[in-house]
Amino acid sequence: MSKTPPTPAHKFPREHYLNATYGIRSWLLTTDHKRIALLYLASVTFFFFIGGLFATMIRIHLLTPGGALVTPETYNKLFTMHGVAMIFFFLIPSIPAVLGNFLIPLMIGAKDLAFPKINLLSWYIYVIGGSFVLYSFSTGGLDTGWTFYTPLSSVYSNSAVTPAVIGIFINGFSSILTGLNFIVTIHTMRAPGMTWFRLPLFVWAHYATSLVMILGTPVVAITLLLAGLERMFHLGFFNPAMGGDPILFQHLFWFYSHPAVYIMILPSMGVISEIIPTFARKPIFGYSFIAGSSIAIAVIGFLVWAHHMFVTGESTYAALTFSFLSYLVAIPSAVKVFNWTSTLYKGSISWDTPMIYALGFIGLFLIGGLTGLFLACLGLDIHIHDTYFVVAHFHYIMVGGAVMGYVGALHFWWPKITGRLYPELLSRLAAVILFVGFNLTFFPQFILGYMGMPRRYHTYPPEFQVLNVLSTAGASVLALGYLLPMIYLVWSMRYGKVAGPNPWPATGLEWKTDSPPPTENFHVTPEVTWEPYDYKNRPDLGLGAPPLAPAHGDD
Amino acid sequence: MQSQLPLYPEQASNFAPHVDSLMLFIIAVCLFFAVSVTIAIIIFFFKYHRKEPNAVGIPVHEDSRLEAVWMIFPLILAMVMFSWGAVIYVDYRHMPQDTLDIYVIAKQWMWKAQQPNGLKEINELHIPVGRNVRLVLASEDVIHDFYVPAFRVKMDVVPGHYNTMWFRATKPGRYHFFCSQYCGTNHALMGGWVTVMEPSDYAAWLAGSTGGEANPAAAGEKLFAEKACITCHVANGTGRAPSLNGLYGAQVLLADGSTVAAEDAYIRESILQPNAKIVAGYQPLMPTFQGQLTEEQILALTAYIKSLQSQPVPAKGAGIAPPTGKK
What we know:
The structure holds two protein chains of two kinds.
Chain A: H1 24-28, H2 33-61, H3 72-108, H4 116-138, H5 152-156, H6 161-188, H7 201-233, H8 246-280, H9 287-300, H10 316-344, H11 353-376, H12 378-384, H13 388-418, H14 424-451, H15 465-495
Helix pairs in contact in A: 2-3, 2-4, 2-15, 3-6, 3-7, 3-8, 3-13, 4-6, 6-7, 7-8, 7-9, 8-9, 8-10, 8-11, 8-13, 9-10, 10-11, 11-13, 11-14, 13-14, 14-15
Chain B: H1 15-47, H2 64-93, E1 100-107, E2 110-114, E3 120-122, E4 124-128, E5 132-139, E6 144-148, E7 153-157, E8 163-168, E9 173-179, E10 192-197, H3 199-208, H4 216-226, E11 251-253, E12 259-261, H5 264-272, H6 295-307
């Protein structure tokens, strides 16, 4: 912090989107994408708290082999509700609905999204869907697993399944509308000069995400509705006793729920593709390959769903096909990691907090992605499927990857959203705590899984205890890593240093306007004349010093 | 019984060493990539740390050859992983000949196993070492999964389907088995022990503990009469339904001209959904027994039909397809 040069003190803008109008109505009836993003921020944080509370109870319970805290019924409800809250109501909307909503119009130089009222509607749909799910949680809970496998969910479970599937069904429309809004906005509302290949990679990632949202979500919505109908009216879609097929449910469910993983991770990859060039102060390496890999992931991601079903008795040929395709989807992910790493080469790398998060993301995503190779492998999956290995793997992707990206993004754009900076040293410390705590929590679970501990067990044989205790210890560190940013980010809204329009400085259009931006985003419509992440030809950024001389000649 | 910190479970089946070698190979490949990338990041992180506040990085232009290298090289390694895994999987899904068949029925929240001589066990499974064992898996209610970590194999137990799995235990001992597909409240309690015995011990165990247990074929024969199957499925082929003598394992000629092997799954389907596959020359008269038989009773009937394998097949009224040239 002390190394930063004495910058001219910035003035907080007199008028901006936060103080343009006052009162509760001005928030609940707003059509400003920035305010809607903050409504989403509040609601996804609420669900993150709920999901986190359940996770805490799970980890405490697993301290002893017999289970330390709750009854088996309650334990099953805890992990189910943890999954439902986190996946459908936190991870899927987190980056797109909060940061995508806030940033896409700013990044492409637009005044708002294409359909501002639909944007508000999608938040209300989310709230209504969320209310149904909260009703389910508070009236009997939910004990089917977040995967809702039939016939357990549709016939045998005694918990509040029906309101939960209705809630998730409703919530699906929120995703679909958001995706639609993004696609139309990106196609039609780019500022003059903002060509497709000048788009920030964050926008490319959201474009790919939106495709998955509008193509996949209808399938899971209708699938869960069918399971609900089977439960309510004793129909026989999936119930074998009535001629249905429980495996059909799994096909339909994973047809969405595998691509849903890409809804969670692609936006996060977009975030990393913004942070790394900004804090290395050079154009991203392989722009077109990173943009193309997002689309490739979204497309191939639709063709790998049955790798969740290698041991259901599906045909050997199907298994071979899906295993092969799952390996293909690994390649575009690898391309991204290699390009991010290469971007650091000959950069001017600062150790600011967003950069720490971005590098932490690469580390955790590497482990998460590479362990996917184990699970895609048919010969290994017959051993590690449905064990803690899977639990560790998807937490590395969805928490290590997606949430690191989300928290990193909050730090990167916090000055833009609130106009103020957070305490730098404390936030770096929090990033390191989060990284260490995460690894302590979830790395032992890989070993547990290979040792043979199945997932969703409220009690386990004593030989698994050491690793479970390690994992719980890590979880307490991890919790600290989440609480710290929540505290100092809120603190900074009032007491933080005034950020100015472009504190890093970064090259995107969103940094060309005030922080916080005015309601109409830009005082004059910007015109883009530069290539993305170009620091050399941007005198407006105020980086006067000549670039370092090339050390060994530029190849 | 104090455990230190073992990294893999005991290797006790034919699959275990292969799965572990494959695991080591993939770990090696992944370590190579993870360590290379991590080292590169750490070096760059310190080497290119910004010293001048206003410094900018040196643009390095993208290089299609480099991109191609880091797409093709990982792809080749991925294909090696895929193929190696496929070899193990195909072996696992392809049932060998001459297996010791054990029927396993899962229900919330217990496992019932039935040895070939009818001996039943609950949450226990005794098998001989060195013999290929095939488990035929059926569920009474929801989806379960039979998983033996020491054998490195598992298979879902899906209601309405028969799934099969096989393995050859290589080391006598007692090994945990678990239900690894979440199945409701006491999912975590739905496990037990596989006891792998020397063949002579296994034979002695089978002989020594059969007291009072009905032979499944005998139980099936009784059911066959009780449920009045016998009134139509007359042994000499003169009934309204085909004789079942010699049926098990044979090819059946269907009304649409196709043939089907009379395996467990076909027999089960014919009992529960008789109209799904009509034998050539017969009317769809048989009522469904869906909901009237437990999985165990279906297995008993199957065992009885299997026991008729060696009975003389009547010249007419058997439904078995005439032998063709190809085998």
